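Entry 14. Ran structure prediction on the chain below.
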Amino acid sequence: MIDNGLAILVLFGLAWFWWDNRGVAERAIQAARRSCDQAGVTFLNDTVGWKKIRLKRNRHGRMNIERTYFFEFASDMQQRYTGEIIMLGQQVNRVSLEAYRITDI
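Output, structure tokens:
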């Protein structure tokens, strides 16, 4: 009986973790798109890739999950560059873009 309860609890925990990750990834996609628009570059593939996950304290001292995602963008549609988004909990903590070539228009 205890084994069944523990298995159900683990399954619910995994389901919650998957669902939470999907929501955070969607926010990361929106942040990447917004950052690319502001920089005047093209956000490629309309997705982010998972790079790293760890526990980290927020500014209030509470433990949160920190997720790092990467994405690709292009300034001239000839070379791909990489960007990085760090999410702390559900919030965007930092977005950074790799140095890229500026095209003349």
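The chain has one domain: 2-97. Will compare against last week's run tomorrow.
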